[in-house]
Write a structure and sequence with these properties.
Helices cover 13% and strands 39% of the residues. The chain is mostly beta strands. Strands 1, 2, 4, 5, 7 and 9 form a six-stranded antiparallel β-sheet that branches. Strands 6-8-3-10 form a four-stranded antiparallel β-sheet, with no helix packed on it.
């Protein structure tokens, strides 16, 4: 009888521990998804350039460097292109990207990008900043317009489009 009582007490003490161990843990799958980002933003909704022709040279120019271009991408092999909406341009318009700043992760192939030379705008996309990847960057933009006495007075309005793209 003592043996039976001991077995019952032992079973009562062991059984909850066995059940507690079996019910004490569980698992499930947690999936983390990072969405791609290729975002670009330009400051200053409008830039006005006014050219005065210089007597004696017959040439004139005006420039503006108050705009900033900002971008963010978690992709690699990106570049920024620029183009104007005008098919025919009466007064040449140029843009140049200034020094690039921001954050990149070089150890995994990150690069804020490298600005190229001044670009004369046309309605075909041209590279302004190259070699962007895994970065949050920005640069100043300098616009320059020129004219001469060979063209009549007037106004041109460009819709300048910047695109973060792959080559």
């Amino acid at each position: 009888m003592r043996t039976l009582a001991f077995a019952v007490v032992l079973a009562a003490l062991v059984s909850p521990a066995v059940f507690a161990q079996a019910l004490d843990s569980d698992s499930h799958v947690v999936t983390v998804t990072v969405q791609s980002i290729d975002d670009i933003d330009v400051s200053n909704a409008q830039v006005d350039l006014v050219i005065a022709i210089n007597p004696g040279t017959g040439q004139g120019t005006d420039s503006d460097n108050t705009s900033t271009l900002n971008w963010a991408t978690n992709g690699t092999g990106r570049r920024i292109t620029v183009q104007t909406s005008l098919a025919t341009i009466k007064y040449p318009l140029y843009v140049q990207a200034g020094a690039v700043s921001g954050v990149a992760t070089p150890g995994v192939g990150g690069s804020r990008g490298t600005p190229g030379a001044e670009v004369q705008l046309s309605n075909s996309a041209q590279t302004l900043v190259n070699g962007i990847g895994l970065a949050d960057g920005n640069c100043s933009l300098t616009y320059r317009a020129t004219a001469s006495v060979a063209v009549a007075p007037g106004t041109e309005s460009h819709n300048v489009t910047y695109t973060l793209t792959t080559p």
